[in-house]
Amino acid sequence: MCLDLQAELQAAAAAALVDYPLPAELHEGLLRRVLRHDDPALVAFAVERWAAATPADVLTPIAGDPRPAVAQAASAALQRRVVPK
């Protein structure tokens, strides 16, 4: 078994920053890293927290995440972007 220690450390570091006020331009990159974290509730919280500054093309595949809470958070974020006609 091969453990990608760098990815694990990046996920943990990004997770630690979820509730810290950060510039919006950092949200997408951190969200990509926190997706590797094994706590679905924390990942869902990160999606909710950082979704507004994350492009829809990044959120769309997250809406298909096998973790229900994560997928639901991404789907809800995408639905908020739909502008009624």
Structure explained in plain terms:
This protein has about 80 residues and is mostly helical. It has one domain. About 60% of the residues lie in helices and about 0% in strands. The chain is built from five helices and no strands. The protein is globular, with a radius of gyration of 13 Å. The model has no long low-confidence stretch (mean pLDDT about 90).
The radius of gyration is 13 Å
> What percent strand?
under 5%
Shape verdict: globular
**Share of residues in helices:** 55-70%
Key terms:
5 helices; 85 residues; mainly alpha
Give the topology, please.
Layout: H1 5-16, H2 27-34, H3 40-50, H4 56-62, H5 68-80
Helix pairs in contact: 1-2, 2-3, 3-5, 4-5
Task: Please outline what is shown here.
The chain has five helices and no strands. By secondary structure, it is mainly alpha-helical.
